[in-house]
Amino acid sequence: MSDTDLAALQQEFTTALAAAKDAASAERVKSDWLGRTGKLRSLTEQLGKLPPDQKKARGKAINDLKLACEAAAEARLRELSASGPKAAPADVIDVTLPGARPRLGRRHPIYATMDEMRAIFAKLGFEAAYGPEIETAYYNFVSLNIPLDHPAAEPFDTWYLDDPDAATRPYRFLLRSHTSPVQMHVMEGRKPPIRVVVPGKVFRTDPADASHLPVFHQMEGLMVEENVTFADLKGVLSIAMKELFGAKTETRFRPSFFPFTEPSAEVDVSCLLCGGGGCPACKGSGWIEVLGCGMVHPRVLEYAKIDPEKYSGFAFGMGVERIAMLKLGVPDIRHFIRSHPLFLRQW
Amino acid sequence: MKFTIDWLSDYCRTGLPAATVAELLTKAGIKVEGLEERGGETVFELEVTANRPDCLSVIGVAREVSVVTGKPVVEPPFKLETTRTMRSPDWMLDVQEPELCPRYVGRTVKGLKVGPAPGLLRQRLEAVGLRSVNNAVDITNYVLYECGQPLHAFDLDKLSGRSILVRRGKAGEKLKAIDGREYDCAGALVIADAEKPVAIAGVMGGKDTEVTEGTKDILLESAVFDPVAVRRTSRKLGLASDSSYRFQRGVDPARVDWASRRAIYLMREHAGARPDTSHLDTRPESAPKRQLQFKVAAIARVLGRDVELPMARRILETLGFEIREDLDGVWRIAIPTWRSDVARDVDLVEEIARVHGYDRIPTSPRVHIALAPPNPADEASAAAKDALRASGHDEVLTLSFTGKSAAEAPFLAGEPVGVLGKTGKREEQMRQGLLPSLLDAVRMHEAYGEKGADLFEIAKVYAKDPRGFQERSILGVVSSRGFAALKGALENVLDRLGLLAHCSFRPAERGHLVPGRTASVSIDGREIGAIGEVSPALAAAHDVRTRPCAAELDWDALVAAAKLRRRFGEFPTLPAVQRDIAVVLDRQVAWADVEQAVRAAAPAGLLESVQFFDLYEGKGIPPGRKSVAFSITLRAPDRTLTSEEADKAVQAVVAALSQKFQATLRQ
User: Fold this and answer.
1) Domain limits, chain B
2) What average pLDDT score do residues A106-120 get?
3) pLDDT tens column, B531-557
4) pLDDT score, position A122
5) Do A102 and B392 touch (CB under 8 A)?
6) To pair with B53 at 20 to 30 A between CA atoms, which of A230, B85, B478, B582?
7) What is d(CA A179, CA A117) in angstroms, rounded to the nearest whole number?
8) Pick the CATH number of B376-561 from 3.30.930.10, 3.30.70.20, 1.10.10.60, 3.50.50.60
9) Strands A127-128 and A194-203
10) Could you write out the DSSP letters of every residue in A226-254?
11) Using CA atoms in the order B619, B625, B626, B627, what is the torsion angle rounded to 10 degrees?
């Protein structure tokens, strides 16, 4: 045999390797040629029959051929394994069919909004606190400087509990009509500095319509420390509103009245839709009312046995449903409680 | 509170467009809700907060307009010449309840010609939203809106004994009011003549003594009634009026006699009344103004910035406060009679701030940083909700009322809690469990073509027990995918809460779940809830056609038990041996017992886990028996187990099951 034979063999191997269209056939070609009983192996066996003077050169040529073939086989295998074998026609799948999605449950937008609000205030150092939904008139009204039998209690259309013993109790039981009673529980339970937010359910005797529900959610905030001022209130809420509604949000404070704060303010944010230019959503004013706030009334601090000469604070409260409706564009508050599948799956 | 801008201009002429005045008022806290064109007039609508009854009158609002525009207030000029015409009264006044009626001014006027009121009065009252009645009644309403003091005109000739008594209504006494309805006067403060009630004090006058076309002589009432008494009566009778609204909030004591004279003056001018008049006043002397020591340092302390003192002084003075003395930064201030809401430093600070402008207070968050440690309940709920959503459950939000009259599927033991609505009647009942609400949500899904629903909610339920009113947070889950799927979802929740190894499920019975397909759920042996198939009766009561499974767990107990903090645990690196075993045993043998037997029988220290994977009944298995397949994982901490060791363990397990449950190995 001559070296030209070896060149032909190499050509033959290269052709066979190219013909292999998947990794398995390439492996087969490789073992047919390079395996223990492969064609190249038999060449080596023939070496022994050669005269000693030719043996060395011939041996080197065969070895080179083997190395070249092995390298080619590896390269072809790598190439084939990169693309993988083509599936048999029966195994071809319709990749445009929808994926087998595991059903993923959705968060309710009210709880999601509440979580978002809580997280924003957590960044500002306000921790979450909770309190009972069944309250007494003391915590819901009296301790918050809302005298019973006073028009100031009127906006809080309150559900009182049906209680045969009501007459014997110092204060009647009711469903809290705002989250503010938790302010009092928190202040009674610890000394300033205090920074809390209180998310939770509240109850009013409003019949359900597009913008009212008898049960809805509020988030209350309270900060009581030394030297807290109205300027701090404005600062904290302005930052929080930017976080909640977007960095460009402007905030406006208007004087208002709440029995438990003095001075009190209502807070408007620049309209989310028009940015302040005026549109139907903001009734052309460019502003949307989102919360009420003020400096904690000294009387409230006194009820909590906190010295109003030493400490001051601010409080704020907002309706979670209202914020969610504004942020998400929900047109009717009743959507939140109807459990309609097509509503729940939008979030 | 509505009125025309033209009326307002009588007392404060600004020369400014209505929209500008509205904006200035709103900025100062007197919120103008609407500006409306009606019959060529611009009508203001104000939202007046409960602390500012002084702004329930046009003069009161004019004072605020004056403060924000710098234009003066002009009181309506009139003169009631009383000296010449004064005569001793031919009628009698007796206030028997001076606590509830601290002042009563009665004035008579005679020779009235009842007829239509002048056009301007009528127009202004109609813009307010009042129907014109006749000149006398319209004048009382006009003065009420002008200065905020309610008035009432009686037909003097119809008052029995020409007497006015202010007393409590007696049992059985009734009054037909001018609205034509009859009211029970028992216990209420009434105005009575010698025989009977003629008005419900501060709320509404009576039909029998009202001014009619035939009326000649009038007794005009201008009084002060106790706010709480008026409020209680008004609520009890379900009767509110412009008068009761103002008395509840408090009237300006300095306007009581003024309003009376003003109305009599207008009756002379516009209703032809004769000039002679008589009057009785139970408290003619005016009380001194209340005073307050105002530490001006409070301005900066509350607002976080100073307001220049001359500015602060100017604001307070234009609002009617008199600064009588200034001693080292403490101002002795006399409070105007119409500002009963001002009682402390902060009230004055607010007055200064709102007029000066909230926008001039800096927006400076110079609060120091603080930690906000996470609330354990929030962390637990985030973990649990995450697990439930991952297993395909949507979160819902349902109302806390049941909509049913009787307790239904209660989770919390005790009586249902009822709540009283505006009328004082029991209108709603609080839910005692979440399941009924969740089933309503399932029905909603079915109604929109879904085959059942997978839903959850964490919310409170309520009950009344001997200790009192109770409330408890619970986790409710409903599933369309069967018991095992729901149990698996719960196990994922318990796993996330670090409680999987602490929980156990045992056969149990619950009225609203199918017996034999219900389990109690316990944490460390303490029962915290149940899981099971919803009974057909309960499903039917909620029009649910599918057969959902449901679970309710005491969420407060789960939060208290949750172990959310994780720490690294050393894990084995040597290979494990896993063997599958299938045994045939009696149907009623519980897996929990099988597992326990397996754990007891396997060689100590080698058994890592026992994992159920199949249950089979039917062809090839004798009736009353079942095939249970499970795998055991064996591992030694210090060496690789041989297959002989594993075989021996399997034999021991099979032998134990055979001995304990007559189990046979399924080939």
Assistant:
1) 2-69, 92-281, 291-359, 376-561, 577-665
2) 97
3) 999 999 999 999 999 999 999 999 999
4) 96
5) yes
6) A230
7) 15
8) 3.30.930.10
9) parallel
10) ET--HHHHHHHHHHHHHHHH-TT--EEEE
11) -80
Summarised one tens digit per residue, pLDDT across range A213-239 is: 999 999 999 999 999 999 999 999 999
Q: How far apart are CA A274 and CA B441, in angstroms?
A: 36
Interface contact flag, A107 B441, Cβ < 8 Å: no
Which value does ipTM take for this structure? 0.90
Cβ-contact B434, B447 below 8 angstroms? no
Verify whether the Cβ–Cβ distance A126 to B227 is below 8 Å.
Answer: no
Which chain B residue is nearest to residue A151, measuring alpha carbons? B50
Strand partners, B478: B455, B550
Minimum CA–CA partner of A132 in chain B:
B471
Note whether B50 contacts A154, CB cutoff 8 Å.
Answer: yes
Q: Over range B614-641, report the average pLDDT.
A: 93
Q: Using CB atoms, which residue from A111, A128, A340 is nearest to B448?
A: A340
Query: In chain B, which residues have their Cβ closer than 8 Å to the Cβ of A107?
Result: 385, 389, 395
Tell me how close the Cα of B457 comes to any Cα of chain A, in angstroms.
Answer: 9
Q: Which fold has domain B2-69?
A: Phenylalanyl-tRNA Synthetase; Chain B, domain 1 (3.30.56)
H-helix segments, B74-158 = 119-128, 135-147
Cα separation, A194 vs A181, whole angstroms:
15
Where do we find the tokens 């619970």?
B474
Supply the CATH classification number for the domain B291-359.
3.30.56.10
* ∠ Cα B314 B316 B319 (to 5°): 105
For residue B373, the distance in angstroms to the closest alpha carbon of chain A comes to 6
Which of A118, A133, A152 faces B460 most closely, judged by CB atoms? A133
Domain boundaries, chain A: 3-91, 109-344
Q: Chain B residue closest to A102 (CA)? A: B392
User: What residue in A sits closest to B390 (Cα-Cα)?
Assistant: A104
A interface mutation test: which of B30, B363, B456 has the most A CBs within 10 A? B363
* Cα-only R_g, chain B: 40
The token pair that represents B510 in the structure block = 């619950």
Amino acid B554: pLDDT: 98
* Coil, strand or helix at B49: coil
Q: What is the pLDDT of residue B609?
A: 93
Q: Does domain B577-665 have CATH number 3.30.1360.70?
A: no
Nearest CB to A134; choose among B248, B453, B471? B471
B291-359 and B577-665: identical CATH topology? no
pLDDT of B464 > 70? The answer is yes
Rg (CA), chain A: 40
Give the CATH number of domain B92-281.
3.50.40.10
Whether the bond into A170 is cis, omega within 30 of 0: no
Q: What's the CA gap between B293 and B342, in Å, rounded?
A: 12
Chain B closest-CA separation from residue A108 CA (Å):
5
Give the span between the Cα atoms of A192 and B649, in whole angstroms.
63
The token pair at A44 is 């080596």
Q: What is the pLDDT of residue B87?
A: 63
Confidence at A85, pLDDT banded by 50, 70, 90 = low
Q: What is the pLDDT of residues B279-294, one digit of tens each?
A: 899 988 888 899 999 9
Q: Which of A124, A229, A260 to mutate to test the interface with B (most CBs of B within 10 A)?
A: A229
Classify burial at B184, counting beta carbons within 10 Å of its beta carbon; exposed 0-12, middle 13-18, buried 19 or more.
middle
pLDDT score for B364: 78
- Per-residue pLDDT band for A2 (boundaries 50, 70, 90) equals low
Residues of A within 8 A of B466 (CB-CB) are: none
A161/B419 Cβ within 8 A: yes
Please state the CATH superfamily assignment of the domain spanning residues A109-344 in this structure.
Bira Bifunctional Protein; Domain 2 (3.30.930.10)
Query: Chain B contacts of A103, Cβ < 8 Å?
Result: 392, 454
